[in-house]
């Protein structure tokens, strides 16, 4: 039995210590937005945030985590897909098949949390997830757009647009 802080809620998860976090999330907790792609940390479909860092959950054993570690999955990134990256992804129409997109979004949001205005080179270095459909140019465009959305001043409540 492990205690995991997933999307702000501490949960008891009944798995062996060597069980990859990916399978605990999908099979025990029912959060299926995190995808299985390769099982060897190469593709990034299983990317989640652990204490604000993007990590590949397919190679992260549950036993390596503490109850104080903050795990965020695609389901916990925002309510109603309101995160700047999620908005930009929809606006730019990034997904083709969509399978890798939850991992791509988690990697992009971790990048923007550390670097609010990344260059193309920054994006290329940080985005190591694989997209079989080859939407890399749209991913880069969406990350730049997300940076714009995130840096835009918030409209004052009650003000007319």
UniProtKB/TrEMBL annotation:
<dbReference type="GO" id="GO:0051537">
    <property type="term" value="F:2 iron, 2 sulfur cluster binding"/>
</dbReference>
<dbReference type="GO" id="GO:0047121">
    <property type="term" value="F:isoquinoline 1-oxidoreductase activity"/>
</dbReference>
<keyword id="KW-0408">Iron</keyword>
<protein>
    <submittedName>
        <fullName>Isoquinoline 1-oxidoreductase subunit alpha</fullName>
        <ecNumber>1.3.99.16</ecNumber>
    </submittedName>
</protein>
<keyword id="KW-0560">Oxidoreductase</keyword>
<dbReference type="GO" id="GO:0046872">
    <property type="term" value="F:metal ion binding"/>
</dbReference>
<keyword id="KW-0411">Iron-sulfur</keyword>
<dbReference type="InterPro" id="IPR012675">
    <property type="entry name" value="Beta-grasp_dom_sf"/>
</dbReference>
<dbReference type="InterPro" id="IPR036884">
    <property type="entry name" value="2Fe-2S-bd_dom_sf"/>
</dbReference>
<dbReference type="InterPro" id="IPR051452">
    <property type="entry name" value="Diverse_Oxidoreductases"/>
</dbReference>
<keyword id="KW-0001">2Fe-2S</keyword>
<feature type="domain" description="2Fe-2S ferredoxin-type">
    <location>
        <begin position="1"/>
        <end position="77"/>
    </location>
</feature>
<dbReference type="InterPro" id="IPR001041">
    <property type="entry name" value="2Fe-2S_ferredoxin-type"/>
</dbReference>
<keyword id="KW-0479">Metal-binding</keyword>
<dbReference type="InterPro" id="IPR002888">
    <property type="entry name" value="2Fe-2S-bd"/>
</dbReference>
<dbReference type="InterPro" id="IPR036010">
    <property type="entry name" value="2Fe-2S_ferredoxin-like_sf"/>
</dbReference>
<dbReference type="Pfam" id="PF00111">
    <property type="entry name" value="Fer2"/>
</dbReference>
<dbReference type="InterPro" id="IPR006058">
    <property type="entry name" value="2Fe2S_fd_BS"/>
</dbReference>
<dbReference type="Pfam" id="PF01799">
    <property type="entry name" value="Fer2_2"/>
</dbReference>
